[in-house]
Write a structure and sequence with these properties.
about 80% helix; globular; about 210 residues; 6 helices
Length: about 210
């Protein structure tokens, strides 16, 4: 098997940082949902993590523009970077909606979606840690499968959440608010799967 030793290790280092930041952001959202106190401070912390993710993405794009020969196809580097950035953006959006909509208490389904996101991003962190050594391609693919599993679980929880929402709420405003929040968190798990799909493509192309 081809050993993907990067000509520019900086891309792999920055991917690791970006994935780790996405994971830390998901953990911060889960903490907000599990321990719904001091909400403005926690939301600001999430905003800071989102800004940190933006900075990492900018560094990657800068290196991509300046590097003649890249260790991965340019379109794959761009797609990975963009999708990882989308994860942190969506998490930040979900946190802001909780405060903007003056949510009094998170639902159990919201907490469950938050934990799914934590597990999915943790699997991405593990996959990216191996990306500079495709002799461990099977392990990378295993972590990608774990992300797919979590995305499926996120879909299941999302469907349950919507059903419960219409069963238990009569105020149209509450339904609109929670539908938006659920959709935002669930979309973040979808984007985790998008990243896993790109990683799968990278492994296949370089095997």
């Amino acid at each position: 098997m081809f050993s993907l030793m990067p000509r520019e290790k900086i891309f792999f280092e920055l991917f690791n940082k970006q994935a780790a930041n996405a994971h830390e952001t998901s953990r911060a959202l889960a903490d907000l949902l599990d321990n719904y106190t001091d909400v403005p401070t926690k939301v600001q912390h999430l905003k800071n993590l989102e800004h940190a993710g933006d900075e990492i993405a900018h560094h990657i794009f800068d290196h991509l523009a300046k590097t003649f020969i890249t260790p991965l196809d340019r379109e794959d580097i761009h797609e990975i970077t963009s999708r990882l950035d989308d994860i942190t953006d969506l998490i930040d959006t979900a946190a802001n909606r909780l405060m903007l909509y003056r949510i009094a208490r998170p639902t159990e389904d919201a907490r469950a979606l938050g934990h799914v996101l934590v597990t999915a991003t943790e699997s991405l962190v593990k996959a990216f840690a191996l990306l500079n050594n495709l002799k461990r391609a099977e392990e990378i693919l295993h972590h990608c499968i774990d992300v797919h599993t979590q995305e499926n679980e996120g879909d299941r929880i999302h469907h349950h959440a919507l059903a419960a929402l219409f069963d238990n709420h009569t105020d149209p405003a509450d339904i609109i608010k929670w539908k938006d929040i659920y959709q935002t968190i669930e979309t973040a798990t979808d984007v985790c799967e998008d990243v896993a799909n790109v990683l799968h493509t990278v492994v296949v192309k370089n095997a």
